Amino acid sequence: MTSEPGRERVLDAATRLFAALGYDGTSTKMIAEAAGLNTAAIAHHAGGKRDLYLAVMERAHRMERSALEAAVADMTPDAAGVLNLLDRYIDFCAAHPEIPALWMHRWLSDAADVAHLESLYVKPLMRMVTGAVGGLLSDGADVEYLAWTIVWCTHGFARGGVLDGDGRRHGVDDPRELARFRAHLRGLVATALRLPGDEVR
């Protein structure tokens, strides 16, 4: 019988490597070394590389779904509620940058043979969020593209950050840049909501 602590240890190591190198760039041997185990132990705890990847993505989805469901449940049907939903999504990605990294690898055709995850995980969350905020946007605003713009920007910032004048990268671990990024996205959403600037801060 597989021990839960052993499986979690393997999944943690696999998550770090898949987030850093992608599915295609990660081997079972690398995961075994990162977990401090041999490949036989990896197979015992989690199966093969594809099984590991599916388990990592399912665990990441459960975390994201739980966070978004709670944020949507708490959302008030007004501009402040939409901005709070945005803040909580940014906070989630900042606290778990490995999850945006996993999805960004997929956007670059990583794990192309595992094609069903977007339909299984992404579409339901997108429907939930766009359904919650769609009626609050100004006429003509494309709620789906607004949601995707937030996802693209937040995942990109969580993964790569921004470069300063000296070429140094700053991201979610830099409080000043995170606050600047948050203010920028809040302004973007405020435009879709047609909010005056003082309501955005």
From TrEMBL:
The keyword Transcription applies. InterPro entries: Homeodomain-like_sf, HTH-type_TetR-like_transc_reg, HTH_TetR, Tet_transcr_reg_TetR-rel_C_sf. Keywords: DNA-binding, Transcription, Transcription regulation. It comes from the Bacteria. SUPFAM superfamilies: Homeodomain-like, Tetracyclin repressor-like, C-terminal domain. It holds the Pfam family TetR_N. This is TetR family transcriptional regulator. GO terms for molecular function: DNA-binding transcription factor activity; transcription cis-regulatory region binding. The keyword Transcription regulation applies. It comes from Actinomadura litoris. Residues 4-64 form the HTH tetR-type domain. Residues 27-46 bind DNA.
